[in-house]
Amino acid sequence: MADGAKECEPASKKIKIQSDIQENDENIHTVLKDFSEFQQKRILSINSQRKTICIEGSFNNKSGTAIVLLEKKPFNEESLKNTLDYSCTLHKEFSNDIYGFYECFPSVKYNGIKTTVIHPATEKHIKKYQSQDVHLIEETPELYNSVTLPHLQKEKFSLQWVINILEHKSETDRVVFEDSNPEIGFILLPDLKWDAKQIEDLYLIAIVHQTGIKSLRDLNSCHLPLLKNIKEKGIKAIKEKYNIPSSQLRIYVHYQPSFYHLHVHFTYLKYVAPGIHAERSHILSSVIDNIELMHDYYQKATLSFVVKETETLFLEYEKRGIVKKR
Ligand code: G7M
């Protein structure tokens, strides 16, 4: 074994991730056709720059909280062809000399709003979508082991959607590429945030088949073949399907992620995707390079991350006096 390298456990020995769906659970997405049964409770956040609004509510005769996230879509060449024609009516607001200001009403077909419905939503989902003050935590390995890790083991989000993708039960028709190798394989598909209609906001994620890798913190030299495989085959698949060269892709992982099963983000470089800021994203090439320089770099490094004030992880750090509200 190379000097400093780690003995790697084969993926076949790792534990299987558990499905938490009960046979008789009722899924609203099999029947939801409109919002006639939706009762709004409150607005969780509005982002005028991203043109999103997030609403908390519930559905009549259904138990549990619902979260509805609405987002206006970007323009694309295809839909534009059908937008600017006779079916698109104009209401004039005012004009001045050569300048006319109108409100334009494209036909319903070309006026869709990207909509995400989460039901039943947990308290953690509500906190995630609620606008609030954020703080930066500089997490040393000691803080990870004594605060973050015990918190994750107690509180983590359900990974059901990830299991469904890996087991080919959901989003099967959206899969762009799969390498089914249990050690280094992954599934590449459009992220929830991308409708896959235009490359201007291209956003894909690669979800690894190997279980038990929670986040960047767990990565070491054993994972180099996996990380390199995702980079190489992810780039190739995107080039083949969307004709985007690797030099126009941003390939990265989040720390902290929202879901503790390793996944890598691929976004179009020109697209200012949510979560690409310095305090959250780690470029995959640098991750690989850091591990090649030091096999346990991510177990030794201090990693910064952002936490919202109402998140329980913030409260854990606040309890220890590491972070304070204004
Ligand atoms: O690294 P982090 O955990 O923050 O990112 C998770 C990513 O998974 C986000 O970009 C989400 O938009 C995406 N995502 C979340 N869910 C629940 C789904 C899903 O059900 N399907 C797909 N394709 N992406 C999802």
From TrEMBL:
Its EC number is 3.6.1.59. It holds the Pfam family DcpS. One of its GO terms (cellular component) is nucleus. GO terms for molecular function: 5'-(N(7)-methyl 5'-triphosphoguanosine)-[mRNA] diphosphatase activity; RNA 7-methylguanosine cap binding. Substrate binds at residues 161, 171, 191, 193, 254-265. The active site is at 263 (nucleophile). GO terms for biological process: deadenylation-dependent decapping of nuclear-transcribed mRNA; mRNA processing; RNA splicing. It is found in: Cytoplasm; Nucleus. Keywords: Acetylation, Cytoplasm, Hydrolase, mRNA processing, mRNA splicing, Nucleus, Phosphoprotein. InterPro entries: DcpS/DCS2, HIT-like_sf, Scavenger_mRNA_decap_enz_N. The keyword Zinc does not apply. It catalyses: a 5'-end (N(7)-methyl 5'-triphosphoguanosine)-ribonucleoside in mRNA + H2O = N(7)-methyl-GMP + a 5'-end diphospho-ribonucleoside in mRNA + 2 H(+). Belongs to the HIT family. Homodimer. Associates with components of the exosome multienzyme ribonuclease complex, such as EXOSC3 and EXOSC4. Interacts with NDOR1. Decapping scavenger enzyme that catalyzes the cleavage of a residual cap structure following the degradation of mRNAs by the 3'->5' exosome-mediated mRNA decay pathway. This is m7GpppX diphosphatase. It comes from Zootermopsis nevadensis. The lineage of its organism: Eukaryota, Metazoa, Ecdysozoa, Arthropoda, Hexapoda.
